[in-house]
Amino acid sequence: MAQLSADCLNDILEYLEDDMINLHSCLLVNRLWCNVSVRIFWKNVWNYKTSNFRTLISCLPKESKENLCKNRITVLNPNSKSPMFNYASFCKFLSIRQVRNKLESLLRKYIKPFYTFRIPNDVTKLTQEIIKLFFVQISSLKKLELCESPDKINFYPGTKVGLKNISKLYCISNISSEIFYLLSQTCHNISSLEIKFGQFISEGLIDLISVQKNLQSFGMMQLSELAVLTPLIEKIPNTLIKLNIHKYNFISLLFIARFTNLQEINLHFYCKEDFIDFEKLQYAIFPNLQILKIQAACPKFDLLIRFLENNGNNLKECYIGDEMGHSDNSLNLAIAKFCPNLKKLSTGFKNNELETMKIVFNSCQYLESINIWCGGKFLSEKEALESIVKYSHENFYEIIWSYQYYHVQLKLLPEELESFFISWMDRVPQKSLYLVTIKNNAYSLDASDENMEIINKYIKLNVIKKFKVIDFNDNEFNWCKRM
Which SUPFAM superfamilies match (predicted)? Predict the structure, then answer.
């Protein structure tokens, strides 16, 4: 029987990268499968369990182990066997924060309660040794997250080689300039950079941005007003195709117009006043724009309508709305008029806007997915479902419910839900449905046992392909949550 080559097997098993249970089973098949699987298993530090860090401690060089012993950090079994692999060298996605958090959990588990006062200091020392192991052993790091305070990060001899191929970097702005200078000497091909801005910006950060040759995605989370932010923004190259801005303080948005190659714009602000200079940005032209996400707050609707008039024709995804559930009928009509090629849409239709929803479906004939806001002043679930059955086109397959208010109760009756599924089965051609509930409270589609019985019934009949419940704070559009 012919055996798969290592490269071929690697391509197959990489599909299990986020399925640690099945990937662990692959380790046990034979030597080849073990050699391939172990590299994938240790690829992303975010997938590591506490036990993985005990293994890494056993991989520490003699000097590091002696240093830990001198500091009375005893989480290593002195009788443990030598590791089978150089596990740290397999890491491609490294997070300093995750390493520190997992090591703290490890120490709290193995140190007696009356020694807990030592944990912060011990965590710092242990983190330094493990990070040193990573930086010395990793030959080609792809993603790096530096969201620790400056005094907890050190680089070591030999680090430059491992950092050369970093493509994604997540960091805070106040890391020491020395670290940013080192990165700027080594990392010239970062494609994705996301920065959490604190009280100040290290000078080396501007240098790091200046040397980038192929920066395609830039994200910024601004926590305070920074006078030196403008010089940094001016250094961002016009190679961007994706821009994320999450901010709490004032900054002009006019700089966005410079990035004419943008394919995706994500804006997450907390009040209309944050959209400074949007009255000028409304006239900017982005010929390649395909995804527009405006969350938490919106600019004035007349300005946003003009922006859509200029840039809506190529949009494939449009998410417009805020956490207070504000929406506007004229905006939805503008979406129908100026965004005919949409595949995904998130918006609200008020109780008297059933006809507008019909117009949107008739105009956006490529629509595959819609995120409908439910409850309060918005259309009832029953009305929305009836409109979807009647007016959505053959490409449509996904319904997402967003409950905008904590006090809203589910009004959809079990018989109304079943009636929708029966009607959906009569569609020609029929596509299996994806149902997603983004809930803000206990009242959602899964809260009723009767509803769940109906949903499970139609899952078995293959009318529903996927049913998923997501907490409002964990929804996929919150790009900055990892920061």
Answer: RNI-like
